Structures
1.
Amino acid sequence: MTEADHRRNDARLQEWRNRTIVPMVAAASVFLAAYAWPIIDPDLPAVWEGVCSAALVVVWALFCADYVVRLWLAPQRVAFVRRNWFDLLVLLVPVLRTLRLVQVIVVLGLVNKRATMTMRASVSKYSVAAALLIVFCAALAVLDAERGVPGAVIHTFPDALWWAATTVTTVGYGDLYPVTAEGRLVAGVLFTAGIALLGVVTATLASWFVEKFNEGQESAAATQKQMVELMEEVRSLRAELAARTAPAEPAAEEADPGR
Amino acid sequence: MTEADHRRNDARLQEWRNRTIVPMVAAASVFLAAYAWPIIDPDLPAVWEGVCSAALVVVWALFCADYVVRLWLAPQRVAFVRRNWFDLLVLLVPVLRTLRLVQVIVVLGLVNKRATMTMRASVSKYSVAAALLIVFCAALAVLDAERGVPGAVIHTFPDALWWAATTVTTVGYGDLYPVTAEGRLVAGVLFTAGIALLGVVTATLASWFVEKFNEGQESAAATQKQMVELMEEVRSLRAELAARTAPAEPAAEEADPGR
Amino acid sequence: MTEADHRRNDARLQEWRNRTIVPMVAAASVFLAAYAWPIIDPDLPAVWEGVCSAALVVVWALFCADYVVRLWLAPQRVAFVRRNWFDLLVLLVPVLRTLRLVQVIVVLGLVNKRATMTMRASVSKYSVAAALLIVFCAALAVLDAERGVPGAVIHTFPDALWWAATTVTTVGYGDLYPVTAEGRLVAGVLFTAGIALLGVVTATLASWFVEKFNEGQESAAATQKQMVELMEEVRSLRAELAARTAPAEPAAEEADPGR
Amino acid sequence: MTEADHRRNDARLQEWRNRTIVPMVAAASVFLAAYAWPIIDPDLPAVWEGVCSAALVVVWALFCADYVVRLWLAPQRVAFVRRNWFDLLVLLVPVLRTLRLVQVIVVLGLVNKRATMTMRASVSKYSVAAALLIVFCAALAVLDAERGVPGAVIHTFPDALWWAATTVTTVGYGDLYPVTAEGRLVAGVLFTAGIALLGVVTATLASWFVEKFNEGQESAAATQKQMVELMEEVRSLRAELAARTAPAEPAAEEADPGR
């Protein structure tokens, strides 16, 4: 495979991504709804429960297809698999429903990816959105795992939401807590999300305060502007000097290559 | 509506804000007192309770009036509503007493707004004040929501304050916790405030340490000063050159426009 | 009082501080020991308990004397009282033993004050020391407040230490927690210390990473060095120009004042 | 001992370190396995338990030998002991098994030391790895300390892992908590690790955001580049000036030393 092919495929992979973002997010939303409904409303008629599970399977198939296509388009397949190990994990292990929900978030995340790289405001917005989504999904997943388990203390969706909120903020009252392995796995994801969230909030504020409060930052920017001015100043100084004395001396030409 | 109108209205909106800050803060304080008193002292004579509820209604009306005036003065009404969705939410949903208390805080916040943008010290002072106020209001709101509810564990104001303190710092012992939906909503506001507070404290320290400890910052400031000097140096250099050789050559004039 | 008096008094206040640091820290240590011993060892013979309380009174008197002297030396007395409100509070309200212990820490803090302002390492060392001391004092204070109270869960010093550690780190298991007002006041001080500690740790790391990782910082420092070089370059350029053309033209002299 | 000896020994110490990293990490892994196995599987045949304890002793001996060699190679022995007090503590006090496990982590840490100093990504990777390892070791240690103790609530390895996770993230539900002194000591290490971890996560993000978002940083870098350009510009300006006027005047030569 030549270097040119690599570049072309990379471009095609990118193009595929851009085209599939909207449908993927749509599919993810369907997935979320189909996952949430039976959990929130336990006495859902069997018919609708069937519809939901069907929807889950379909969306899952879509995600798989998307993965396969991206793998096929990827310039270096091995590198692609290593870089996207998380996608694969979530797709192959059907037990990890909770992680598949995180996958949903990742997909939604893709949308803002580029934005987050450029502006502080969008980082904040994206983090808040992600946090809310993670809390909601975690509440669903933990309820799904704990409900009806003997010794479990989380039995209703409001309780699950409350637990998720106390967990992601690392408050952890301990009035509610998961007792099953799945529930604790979900909690683990929530802890991590919580620490990351705390980090993003603080870091965004810090970078903002550094810009607002630290002289160094302002003067650096000011210096930058003056630098351009000064450059012109010096250049035109040379221009004048040349204009004045060039005709008189060929020495100037000899000096030129030295520049 | 012309551009000029826009600018004039914007100025009028600003002026209105500046003029109303003092009365608004006064109204907010009355609101706080009228809200706090009946909660802290449960066996308050019915007469006084009536007075308090009346005061709450009056202040609420004032807030509404203020909102309407600002909306009317706003250059772009739609943008104004979108930007101030929180004010509207707090005004329209009378159930959200707790959020109206947060609104009180926001109003108080307006006072320091400009200050906070300029100095580190005022950011800290403002955050501490806001944190204390939020803790106090949250304690009131949670007590109001939990007291007398079967299964609730928060029954006295000292307990409510203690709970609020353990919550805003994300310690969350779990000896006390809300069980009602309203109480948990208040807790949610407290969590968020707690994370924000932690972020502000850390970020303020970070920006301060960066300034104090990092060479880059100092040299940037120093460079800035020298830059000005250098600029003069070069300019007077040109001046001299001109002074010496200008009379001899018209070439200088031709060079001028090139600058 | 003239400006000169002000300056002289300020100098004398500073000198007093420098001279009294060592004895004050010694007194504080005595205070800490005399406070800790009867609490850690409940069945201490009455004689020794008497000695300890006597020591506490003596040290308290010393602190008062120190405050009075400093007040007397202060250039502006009112400003001094306002600036040192915390010292006064701790001295005047004999109930607030816990805060007097925090006062001990403040005194110890004075020692490193100057150091902390200059280096990152000393900030870290000072914070760690302060944190350990606060945890130790808080454990003593909470045990003193809770022991023997009906319904209290903290009865032994190891338990108190464990509680203090879980609190200052904002973990807050909730297996142990204060139930008395004094105990909760101590906890409040610990929360605050915990958040501050977290902030200092993170901020120190952040300022260090910013220096280590961010190009901006290095280039700012590098620019600073080159700036000096460039300045010389330009100056000697002017020198040469002058050297070459000065004798010929008086115009140079006229240009001088313009610089 | 001459300066030259010092330098030679320092080099030899470094060389020893580089050579022993791989075997030390291997030994540490064996240690970890031999420590973990009997704890995770309580009904391990006595034979294997014996093998494990033997392995622990052997590895411990290796660590001691390594320490002695490094001490012997160190240029200043006293300084070496003071700088490596932690290693010594962990080696000499055989009770502190938990700390010896932390020592394992320190050894593993050595591998990335140099990397961490240079890149943000490696700091993150190293911290995550360290965090996971600390959580795993802490779970082992706490289980070892608590299992079979009357009144203890941590009896199985999954519970211990869950407890460690809730602790390192400072969530601290309080459904599980250590009751023995050893268990609480382990918890103390975990708290500290948790705060440090939180600090590293936030600080890394902060330094990254400062670089990405703050104008000051970019302009400082940009200025740096232009500075070099400008320098050349001015130098060649001098060159020209010299080239033009040097032959005419000996004054130039006199001016030279002044540069």
2.
Amino acid sequence: MSTRELHLNAFLMNTGHHEASWRLPESDPYAHVELGHYVRLAKIAERGTFDSLFLADSPQLWGNLAQRPAGALEPLTLLTALATATEHIGLIATASTSYNSPYNLARRFASLDIVSGGRAGWNIVTTAGAEAARNFGLAAEPAHAERYARAAEFLDVSLKLWDSWEDDAIVGDKAAGVWGDDRKLHPPRHEGTYFSVEGALNVPRTPQGYPLLVQAGSSEDGRAFAARYAEAVFTAQQTLADAQAFYADLKSRTRAAGRDPEHVKVLPGIVPVLGSTEAEARAAEQLLEDHIVYEHGVGRLESLLQLPAGTLRLDGRLPADLPPESAVEGAKSRYTLVVELARRERLTVRQLIGRLGGGRGHLTFAGTPEQVADQIETWFTRGAADGFNIMPAVLPSGLEAFVEHVVPVLRGRGLLRTEYGPRRTLRERYGLPRPANQYLTPAPALV
Amino acid sequence: MSTRELHLNAFLMNTGHHEASWRLPESDPYAHVELGHYVRLAKIAERGTFDSLFLADSPQLWGNLAQRPAGALEPLTLLTALATATEHIGLIATASTSYNSPYNLARRFASLDIVSGGRAGWNIVTTAGAEAARNFGLAAEPAHAERYARAAEFLDVSLKLWDSWEDDAIVGDKAAGVWGDDRKLHPPRHEGTYFSVEGALNVPRTPQGYPLLVQAGSSEDGRAFAARYAEAVFTAQQTLADAQAFYADLKSRTRAAGRDPEHVKVLPGIVPVLGSTEAEARAAEQLLEDHIVYEHGVGRLESLLQLPAGTLRLDGRLPADLPPESAVEGAKSRYTLVVELARRERLTVRQLIGRLGGGRGHLTFAGTPEQVADQIETWFTRGAADGFNIMPAVLPSGLEAFVEHVVPVLRGRGLLRTEYGPRRTLRERYGLPRPANQYLTPAPALV
Ligand SMILES: Cc1cc2nc3c(=O)[nH]c(=O)nc-3n(C[C@H](O)[C@H](O)[C@H](O)COP(=O)(O)O)c2cc1C
Ligand SMILES: Cc1cc2nc3c(=O)[nH]c(=O)nc-3n(C[C@H](O)[C@H](O)[C@H](O)COP(=O)(O)O)c2cc1C
């Protein structure tokens, strides 16, 4: 096994990442709110010695009900239930810094970290879109830069809260009647632009100190944020060259921020569609595309590109005069990725919807297990990835196929662990040190 | 078995409700954040066919570390983990209407209700005290009346969110490519004094429709709120007469609010301290009192009574000129209960602290299993209670003793079920109907 470890994360999403997956005969249209479905997926991922499970989130009902499965179990709730059904795998929940309070969210992540024995991770997002804003008393989406400014303060407060108990604050001296040492408590007394938080957290410091910090924004502000805080970064990249550029940029920003670039793991998304031959894989991909309702995709694309409804035609192309990314207040990097994909490959709107239907901008790769393993190895060894966010088009079958057929190939090549081994926490699996408490000063020298 | 069912709820709190419980040899001072401790308690309660488990909460670190176990696992997180470790028992989590957003909290309770197969309950509290307020950007505690006004709007919005999907909104028509029926979606479009919430919940309607609604405030505003919304009410009562008066008042208010008084269950708290003889029980009580650090209790009492630090002396009595309940902005009903207890029994401050140390105002009852069962039966049959909130002084041993020794007596008298039977949801156990969806109009007659 090479010293550099490949990290695999299972991105779980109802019946799969392909928008038409629910229409296949094998799929259960109610699976997205069935605990049993997710327990089954978690166990498959543990068989494949994945580092972690990941759930996306936004506090809003996406799109409409007609198109595809909508709604979900709230991610921290679902991952807490999965913590008791699994033993090793990390549990990464998405939660928004724009629509939560630091005190509430910090204690929920601390609680999950304790309940899971140190397996919690937080995918920190700022939540694009006006729909979410309107569920929290705002008339419109806060500007992109403001969302990231709030996110940075949210993190600073959360880190203070997680450090507000020293690791050895509990004394438990029954004879003296002294349970804990109040000198080892550090209330944040934070007064900032977005938050004032006075008191210490009501959860002791956790196995990991705090959850693994994950980030998934690729805009300028998103990368700056990642360089400062993130220990793992999810990203959508369509070509090896783009992925290499992103990887190099993020590592150098991390170094510039005074951190070890090895302490941030870059994990592009990949939607593997497997077949025992290349032709079989392509047929599986085609079957999914045949089930897309293209008319639905037009509205979603217009909304992502901030175009008035009715602008796009299925057999036309994107307008030539789309605004630059700087004019976008929503999901900046996804906007650019989609526009560049359409232009680079001269796709019609219909073809573009077909491509996005599989992974919403993530790289779909149809092939044999060896071909998928080759792709993974190439990106991993050529400076494009530290691992992958595996996004099966259909669930559970796509995850099962990956674990049965691709994982053994990766193990055979010495790229992937064959068992979990003695490391217990998610941060240990990523090869990262347990963070020190920011309030701990070195002990004074004895005189 | 009589047609009227006795309802038992296990109020779990780290090593027990007695503040000195952690100092006993049997207690683990770290138990309050150990999942295994709570799993064990949950299984004991299921052996005793309790209706539910209950966890209290406030988003703040109570008191100081020296005195007794502080901090806890966040209740919804812990109960989600317990949902997978249990099969029948209800799961009632406390959450604050003052320091949450309806959209976030509604989806968390909906998710727990789904994950647990319809066993979720919400103890709705408004959270007294400035400490909590200062963790959420407020300089001071909002006034009592304002907290309850916000609570009422919070409930109205939550009920709209839980009803925002009709039960049969999911269609799952694979052939037609139609997953759900958008006409069965009802976005709240709520614009009120405290909240604006536009969109539908991103969780389908749940097994119970929504969590069982529980309430625990006994002030004038608290009772009015309970009469309007609550399906179960926790209360602290020191005497049969007080408990009967509260019971009658709450039932008549519920009737006046246009609801069936049988649809609100009144559950006073009781701290049973068991012994195989009366003398043994009193000795167990004395052992606990001997472990109280009385100096700590003075500060807590001053804070509850809103007195300046240093006012009270251990061997003195409460001042004669305490302000009336109407002048209190914190926990109104608890204030009155404590003042009346001290006056009625002419207690010194030390004696009062001894009494409160066991159950913070709840009735402590030391006796044999038969005596405890008598007490329960008396209150149950004489119009003081529909059941009890069992608050063992020491955990797990106190719950174990109750289930081993009191439960069989109650069953023998035909007061308590001997097995769970076919009812699945918490609301079914309470004998309550599943709530109808507020947006559902009767189907038009066929023509
Ligand atoms: C794999 C992956 C998962 C993501 N998951 C979420 C999510 O769950 N919720 C969310 O609001 N944004 C999610 N995002 C989007 C980003 O967090 C971000 O909002 C988006 O890329 C726009 O950020 P940017 O403007 O910095 O590029 C995800 C992105 C990636 C690559
Ligand atoms: C059994 C019981 C449990 C309670 N649990 C909580 C709790 O967890 N959190 C909280 O803030 N208040 C809790 N309370 C207090 C009440 O919700 C309420 O805040 C207090 O009685 C003051 O309300 P009032 O002013 O309406 O009397 C509890 C009360 C009782 C009787």
